[in-house]
Q: What sequence folds into this?
């Protein structure tokens, strides 16, 4: 209980958060009503009952379906603002938010509506909640690289609002090597690069993300435990892994949180930290992830402090601000 209090007191960052994954069942219903959309569920409670996933794909099927209720700039603002208010309540002072433009543009929502709505909430959070933020645009890896390249073109007028690019969606069978051209363009434009790798996919995908996409961070990356060589390399190069404990259990990467390698990775010197991934679907926001780790893995205080420190060290905050936090 003392450690859980400490977690709440400490300022924290969140570096792996899909804004569409913060869409709560209640908001799905509210937005469906506002936009005149009929849902195949009678209530938010009935929808929430479907959140019993077998793997990444069974989650993604529901996640993409729910995003259909997001239509206007105001919807994206409301979604993002709701998440940022949660951050304020949990003393999360800096966030790096993923969004999936293709899941919106592919159903006719203009890129501008999406990015402007999200950005307006981020600006308001800076001024009203003192939360700093950066926006990371993810490419959907189950779609061809040409679609990612087209999205990269659509993003050009908005690059002043976008700090990085990422790679997400169905991992197995969609290796990082398929996206070398679009990542090269993003890097050349000065954006940070990250990729989901080693969540369900093999450790080799982590290596590909580093060697072929030149990523600055790996999202998830837990299957790195399958390669001692890669573990040593990632430790030496100081590549961070944005780990998401509750997500990994809910998507059956591990049977139970007690099996999770978070603390052994930390003790091996890897730069890992705790994140919530898709909190509306996986059982809670950042503090709930810390609480679950505390209950299942019994970290000591030094380990908790290190995880929080890593969340700042691995962030894309300006170095000067980072130093002030460490
Ligand atoms: N999109 C949203 N959450 C994701 C996850 N955990 N893995 C891959 N793609 C995602
Ligand atoms: Zn993710």
A:
């Amino acid at each position: 209980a003392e450690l859980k209090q400490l977690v709440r007191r400490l300022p924290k960052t969140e570096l792996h958060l899909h804004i569409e994954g913060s869409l709560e069942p209640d908001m799905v219903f509210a937005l469906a009503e506002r936009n005149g959309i009929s849902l195949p569920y009678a209530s938010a409670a009935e929808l929430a009952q479907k959140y019993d996933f077998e793997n990444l794909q069974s989650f993604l099927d529901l996640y993409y379906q729910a995003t259909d209720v997001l239509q206007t700039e105001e919807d994206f603002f409301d979604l993002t603002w709701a998440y940022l208010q949660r951050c304020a309540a949990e003393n999360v002072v800096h966030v790096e938010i993923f969004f999936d433009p293709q899941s919106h543009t592919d159903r006719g929502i203009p890129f501008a509506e999406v990015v402007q709505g999200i950005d307006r909430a981020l600006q308001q959070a800076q001024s009203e909640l003192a939360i700093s933020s950066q926006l990371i645009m993810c490419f959907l890896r189950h779609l061809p690289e040409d679609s990612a390249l087209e999205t990269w073109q659509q993003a050009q007028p908005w690059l002043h609002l976008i700090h990085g690019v990422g790679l997400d969606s169905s991992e197995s069978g969609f290796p990082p090597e398929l996206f070398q051209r679009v990542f090269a363009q993003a890097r050349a434009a000065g954006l940070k690069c990250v990729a989901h790798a080693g969540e369900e996919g093999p450790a080799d995908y982590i290596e590909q993300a580093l060697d072929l996409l030149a990523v600055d961070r790996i999202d998830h990356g837990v299957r790195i435990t399958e390669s001692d060589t890669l573990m040593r390399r990632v430790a030496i190069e100081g590549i961070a892994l944005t780990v998401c404990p509750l997500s990994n259990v809910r998507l059956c990467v591990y049977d139970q949180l007690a099996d999770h390698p978070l603390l052994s990775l930390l003790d091996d010197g890897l730069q890992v930290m705790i994140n919530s991934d898709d909190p509306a679907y996986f059982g809670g926001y950042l503090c709930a992830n810390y609480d679950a780790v505390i209950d299942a893995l019994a970290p000591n205080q030094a380990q908790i402090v290190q995880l929080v420190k890593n969340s700042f060290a691995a962030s894309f905050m300006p170095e000067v601000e980072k130093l002030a936090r460490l």
User: Anything to note?
Assistant: The pocket of adenine (ligand 1) is lined by residues 18, 21, 56, 168-169, 196, 199, 247, 277-278 (CB under 6 Å). Strands lie at 12-18, 92-99, 132-140, 164-168, 192-197, 217-220, 240-243, 271-274. The longest strand covers residues 132-140. Residues 111-129 form the longest helix (19 residues).
